[in-house]
Design goal:
The chain has 413 residues and is α/β, with parallel strands linked by helices. It folds into two domains: 90 residues; 319 residues, Rossmann fold (3-Layer(aba) Sandwich). It has 13 helices and ten strands. Strands 3-4-6-5-7-8-9-10 form an eight-stranded mixed β-sheet, with helices on both faces. The chain has a two-stranded antiparallel sheet with strand order 1-2. A hairpin with an 8-residue loop joins strand 3 and strand 4. It starts with a helix and ends with a helix.
Length: 413
């Protein structure tokens, strides 16, 4: 019995290591489970290695290696362990590739343009985020306000604010938009490693909920994001923030919404009832957000198309019936010369949002925008890689902090 268990587990371990090493992006309906496995293994290879070794040793003590099948299972486990070593080596490339991406777009000596006080502050330590079972992080040394209304919807038009315990005055503002395929997600579930870092650096961080599909279909989601920006501009000074320096960030669906919001400043179509409010932002940092609902460049095939999901759950009409509206809510269509600085983060192995889509968006944005466009394709990273602390997450937070330090220094100058 123990031999059979070890053999089954060893096959599972090999497959899990494979999903973390190779991008199987044409996997159709299996994309989400492949993403989950690749993410959990790819960002925590050492923990997976330890768990596998302990399990194998326990089964071996119970007689799992007493026959040829058990030895074969041990050989498969060894293959998994070699794969995990390769996964770990790839994950350690995150910091150097992030720095290379910044240097390529901002100049090799970009750090010399950052304000000296900000540079010194970036060297100071920050407490690590600790996850609680209720999905909130313990925000050591920070002050927080929860469930502040920014719109009319009683449950989804709410936001949280995080700032230094010592207080803030005229501080830069980071506005976080959660992901979840536009149908799930919550403001207290994502981006805490980044918000924790920036709040300890003196920023005021705002995390919002927004209305979710399928009950609320587009453009409700982007209208809520715009309404939150307008609320922040009108009210954040009372909470220690600078209304003139608002930076958007978000992952997945949140990455799409932040890109779309940043590229459509003051667009009346997305601001019903508050058309005159200023919804421009200082910069945008989208993580793995889908840039095009229409698949106009035929990057995806029929088996991997997002269109059936968007038709069924997200959009108020089918693409064939209203192509202009689908085009309107695609960030790729909204690229313009007045776009704010962008730092686009994309996982190299992402099976849900493809790197080819991100590259296409960045290439076109760079051709038009007058501001810097940084693109970092994170080696070996899967969708949602930055949700929990890891080597890749820390590299992302470090790189974003440097990017924002430069952008805010230039705005000050």
């Amino acid at each position: 019995m123990t031999t059979d268990i070890l053999f089954f587990l060893s096959i599972s371990w090999v497959l899990a290591s494979l999903f973390a090493l190779v991008r199987l992006h044409r996997s159709g309906p299996f994309s989400f489970p492949i993403m989950l496995i690749g993410w959990m293994v790819g960002d925590h290879p050492s923990g997976n290695f330890l768990a596998q070794v302990v399990t194998a040793a326990a089964l071996a003590a119970g007689g799992a290696l007493d026959d040829s099948l058990g030895l074969a299972a041990l050989g498969l486990a060894a293959v998994s362990w070699i794969g995990l070593a390769a996964v770990r080596r790839t994950s350690r490339q995150a910091a150097s590739t992030a720095e290379a991406a910044l240097g390529d777009s901002l100049g090799a000596d970009y750090r010399s343009d950052i304000d000296a006080d900000r540079l010194a502050l970036m060297e100071s330590p920050v407490p690590r985020p600790v996850m609680r079972l209720n999905a909130r992080f313990r925000l050591t040394g920070l002050d927080a306000e929860f469930d502040i209304p920014y719109g009319e919807h009683p449950k989804r038009n709410l936001l949280d604010i995080y700032r230094p315990m010592s207080g803030a005055e005229n501080a830069q503002v980071l506005l976080q938009v959660h992901g979840g395929g536009w149908i799930i997600g919550h403001k207290q579930q994502q981006a805490f490693p980044l918000m924790l870092r920036m709040a300890h650096r003196g920023w005021v961080c705002v995390s919002i909920n927004y209305r979710l599909a399928p009950k609320h279909r587009f453009p409700d989601q982007i209208v809520d994001v715009k309404r939150a920006i307008a609320w922040v501009r009108a009210n954040i000074a009372e909470h220690g923030g600078d209304p003139s320096t608002i930076v958007l960030t978000g992952g997945s669906a949140g990455g799409h919404l932040t890109s779309l919001a940043a590229l459509t400043a003051n667009l009346p179509d997305f601001q019903p009832g508050f058309e005159d409010d200023d919804t421009s932002v200082a910069a945008c940092v989208p993580f793995y957000g889908p840039p095009d609902f229409t698949n106009r460049n035929k990057i995806r095939g029929p088996l991997t198309s997002m269109k059936p999901f968007l038709n069924r759950m997200i959009m108020p009409s089918k693409l064939a019936d209203d192509p202009a509206f689908w085009d309107l809510v695609s960030p790729l269509s909204q690229i313009n010369a007045d776009a704010p600085p962008f730092f686009v983060v994309q996982g190299h192995h992402d099976v849900l949002v493809w790197r080819e889509e991100a590259r296409d968006f960045v290439d076109q944005l760079r051709q038009v925008s007058r501001e810097p466009v940084v693109y970092w394709e994170v080696p070996g990273a899967q969708h949602a890689f930055d949700t929990f602390p890891s080597h890749r997450t820390r590299a992302a937070v470090d790189a974003i902090e440097r990017f924002l330090a430069l952008i805010t220094t230039r705005r000050g100058d």
